[in-house]
Design goal:
This protein is of the alpha+beta class. 28% of the residues lie in helices and 32% in strands. The strands form 2 sheets. Strands 7, 8, 9, 10, 11, 12, 13, 14 and 15 form a 9-stranded mixed beta sheet that branches. A 7-stranded antiparallel beta sheet has the order 2-1-6-5-3-4-16. It is globular.
């Protein structure tokens, strides 16, 4: 089954993805007025689904105040139905939940309403280490968008990722205009120096990811010092070990950054991976 033949949920109906059409003049198309979130189904389980849904609903309220929220029970039922209709039980799939402003672009503004699209594609999470490079693109400063959500204006991130891959890297690190480390195009970043963990603060404009929040909680439980702040490229390049996190990769170790190599299987990273496995088992929902 090709990707466009997958069955998706679109505004209350289960239809082939190719039939899930958004008007060309919609504000989501014209201005990028939309939001998305993504999570995994692994062996019929989803991890921290409540947090993903809470973040998504909050963003929808910012787009259209008073819009109807998607509740957890309904969301789980939709995912179960999609698994059934796509014959993906006992498999792994990546879920993308997306909303955007349906009404026509232009002025004067009319009453806004949202479309809701939920799709899933087969996915196998890789555990390999990654190769990073610094992007030539500067991170959009904090305050340009309401923070903490995945807005549809991801062009900058996607261009940075595309450029990195064209050069043989897996991802790119974006810096602020003051040249502080912010995040990669798709992940939060952590590094270790002398058994201390460092990670960029929200002031750098990075997205405070759900997996980042989990990792910070696990680090606290280990009693390891963590320094959250604004750090230069030099601080990162002098690290002993580096790893990135998101809800799909979970924890991925960084093999090298441009020409700099880092330690793989650092004891702290290994411990965090072990703790994360147990955390996931305790905080997952069966479909």
């Amino acid at each position: 089954m090709s990707e466009l033949q997958h069955i998706v949920y679109f505004n209350g109906a289960y239809i082939p993805e190719v039939e899930a059409l958004i008007p060309a003049g919609a504000r989501a198309v014209g201005y990028g007025e939309g939001v998305f979130d993504s999570l995994l189904i692994e062996d019929n389980f989803v991890f921290l689904i409540e947090k993903h849904l809470q973040r998504f609903n909050k963003a929808c309220q910012i787009l259209v105040q008073g819009s109807k929220e998607l509740n957890l029970k309904t969301f789980i039922q939709i995912l179960e139905n999609l698994c059934d209709k796509n014959s993906w039980y006992n498999g792994n799939a990546r879920i993308r939940i997306q909303a955007g402003v349906f009404n026509t672009a232009g002025y004067p503004l009319t009453e806004k309403r949202l479309f809701l699209l939920i799709s899933m594609i087969p996915f196998q999470r890789e555990s390999k280490s990654v190769r990073l490079t610094f992007s030539d693109f500067t991170k959009i400063p904090k305050g340009c968008f309401p923070g903490g959500m995945k807005w549809s204006q991801y062009l900058q991130n996607m261009l940075a990722l595309k450029d990195a891959k064209s050069k043989g890297f897996d991802d790119a690190i974006l810096l602020t205009s003051d040249e502080f480390v912010s995040e990669t195009s798709i992940s939060n970043i952590f590094w270790i120096k002398n058994n201390e963990i460092l990670t960029p603060a929200e002031s750098t404009g990075m997205l405070p990811g759900i997996m980042r929040e989990v990792i910070l909680e696990l680090i606290q439980g280990l009693g390891i010092k963590v320094n959250i702040g604004e750090f230069s490229k030099t601080s990162l390049l002098q690290a002993d070990a580096v790893f990135i996190t998101n809800s799909v990769k979970r924890i991925a170790e960084v093999e090298h950054l441009d020409s700099i190599n880092f330690e793989i299987n650092h004891p702290i990273v290994v411990k965090l991976k072990d703790l994360l496995v147990n955390y996931i088992l305790a905080n997952r929902c069966r479909l």
